[in-house]
Amino acid sequence: MKAVTWQGPRKMSVETVPDPTIQKPDDAIIEVTSTAICGSDLHLYEVMGPFMEPGDIVGHEPMGRVVEAGPNSGLSVGDRVVIPFQIACGSCFFCDRGLQTQCETTQVTETGMGAPLFGYSALYGQIPGGQAEYLRVPHADYGPIAVGDELEDHRYLFLSDVLPTAWQGVAYTGASAGDSLAVMGLGPIGQFVARIAAHQGMQVYAVEPEKERRDMAARHGVEVHDLSDDAVETIREATHGRGVDAVVDAVGMEAHGGAQGVMAKFAQLSAQYAPEKLGQSMMQNAGMDRLAALYSSIELVRRGGTISLSGVYGGQASPLPLLTLFDKQITVRQGQANVKRWVEQILPLVEDDADPLGVDDFVTHTLPLEDAPGAYETFQKKEDGCIKVVLKPQS
């Protein structure tokens, strides 16, 4: 089969690789009909190289049709399914509490991490990913989300990651109708964070440097601001001088701005070209994150407010202004999205003819799998108005 593989920093390649096979009774194989490039994939593209090996198959936002089903998978050939980005058992201590990303059965104990993720480095199990023609799905008796045949793929595809991640980001703020919420960054996650919060009746502000991304969010009732020196103060003035009730940081480790960001970017890039073990040690033990978005979130949120981190951070010693966090009594919540925890609430919205979350106004680029390397570059450079790329392996 054809698959998108990581070959080095900023180097993706579509290669012919062996077809996946059933390995355990609860496995299934799907033919991938749509698969997306995630903002988190860009971290692999440029930052997370020390935990990648040439030939690793990437991608964690797939959907498709079952073509082979293990006897304990609970699936049948022909079933149309969306695959959550994490692999969980559904019945352990953590899964029972809606914390599928911490699944006790599947935890990557070798690296001290939680549940394995499709196509996301040795840190998370080095599981072959979904930017491919076919995908082996472990624990298929629990993970896959069965969907109907009536709607196009793009209506369902983002149940794999983007929508649950954004939904959890909003839920973790504890904000509700009538509250104010700011979103730092309007990439794919930030777009849906803003729309979900607006759908739930909040006053939503967003800060984003790219005009195309601001324009997309503005179409969905979001008050948008350029990334400027006075953006935080302007939003603060609009919230009675206090700041917003909650902030969702949808940027993560590669935020722009600040002297600390320059140094962290240098450290990130240095780690990519260090010997493998040294690079891993740098990532695991140093302050590798560019924290401009988080610092702005701390400045923008009101006293007693909440910050929800949806953007991925990867450093172990990144400096935080603990005095400010303590003095302002700020609550911080974070973590990989627990996909199956939120799907029942989201599914009716993506199937609603009125499209209340604007899923039809999200994908900017639909391309064959062969075009993936160029799509990664375009997405990473924010060129051609690129906000969300969907790849079609069977085209």
TrEMBL record:
Please name the InterPro entries in this protein's record: ADH-like_C, ADH-like_N, ADH_Zn_CS, GroES-like_sf, NAD(P)-bd_dom_sf
Report domain Alcohol dehydrogenase-like N-terminal positions: 24-142
One Pfam family it belongs to: ADH_N
Q: Which domain of life is it from?
A: Bacteria
The cross-references to Gene3D superfamilies, in alphabetical order and at most eight, read: Medium-chain alcohol dehydrogenases, catalytic domain, NAD(P)-binding Rossmann-like Domain
Indicate the segments annotated as coiled coil, or none if absent.
none
The keyword Oxidoreductase appears for this protein: yes
Q: Enumerate the UniProt keywords alphabetically.
A: Metal-binding, Oxidoreductase, Zinc
Enumerate the spans annotated as Alcohol dehydrogenase-like C-terminal domain: 188-253
**Required cofactor(s):** Zn(2+)
Q: Which PANTHER family match?
A: DEHYDROGENASE, ZINC-CONTAINING, PUTATIVE (AFU_ORTHOLOGUE AFUA_2G02810)-RELATED (PTHR42813:SF2), ZINC-TYPE ALCOHOL DEHYDROGENASE-LIKE (PTHR42813)
Q: What family does the Swiss-Prot or TrEMBL record give for this protein?
A: Belongs to the zinc-containing alcohol dehydrogenase family.
Name it: Threonine dehydrogenase-like Zn-dependent dehydrogenase
Recall the taxonomic lineage recorded for the source organism: Bacteria, Bacillati, Actinomycetota, Actinomycetes, Micrococcales
